[in-house]
Amino acid sequence: MDKIPDQIGYLVLTEDGAVLESGGELENDERVATIITDLITLSNKVDPTAFAPNEQFKKITITYDDHWFVICLSNKKIYVVKRTIPISAGEGNTVNV
Amino acid sequence: MEKDLDKVIEEIMSTPNVNGCLVADHQGLCLASKGSAHVDSAGVIVAISEQACKIQPNLKPPTVCLETDKKQCLIQRHGTITGAIYKQKA
């Protein structure tokens, strides 16, 4: 996790939100861990007509002006990385995808 | 009264790869929806934007992007209004 470019904090959580690993600005941040697990639970309920039940979300990003959180699920674990947006790429509240 | 909102919705829907759009108030009530966005998801979308705002409540509301292999759902809050755009990945 330390090798991810522009990374300023990370969390590895179990599916129920328990912190397995953490570092940087998110070190032992159980508050953010709870918010993110709740967010994932909510995201499962988004529009069954537009997103078929077999079409699960693979990635969630939360973008602020100068940093963003990337959330991915893999191997029954939730990976959260907080990254800075390099000034040249940051154009307001846009999403980099 | 909703002419302006309809105009904005039309404008968003005419953007390439957009296949749905929804606007809701802070209570999760749908103000407008078009395309693949279903009125019933207004509540969940507002809940997601509120949940995301809790991460850093002192900063301005973030943009949330939910991605599947082929589609994206972008959610942003502005004041009491929350907007969601459903996109096909280019």
TrEMBL record, chain A:
It is found in: Lysosome. Coiled coil: none annotated. Belongs to the LAMTOR4 family. This is Late endosomal/lysosomal adaptor and MAPK and MTOR activator 4. GO terms for cellular component: lysosome. InterPro entries: LAMTOR4 (IPR034601). Keywords: Lysosome. The keyword Cell inner membrane does not apply.
TrEMBL record, chain B:
GO terms for cellular component: lysosome. It is found in: Cytoplasm; Lysosome. Its main location: cytoplasm. The keyword Transmembrane helix does not apply. Keywords: Cytoplasm, Lysosome. It comes from the Eukaryota. InterPro entries: LAMTOR5. The keyword Cytoplasm applies. It holds the Pfam family LAMTOR5. Belongs to the LAMTOR5 family. This is Late endosomal/lysosomal adaptor and MAPK and MTOR activator 5. It comes from Loxostege sticticalis (Beet webworm moth).
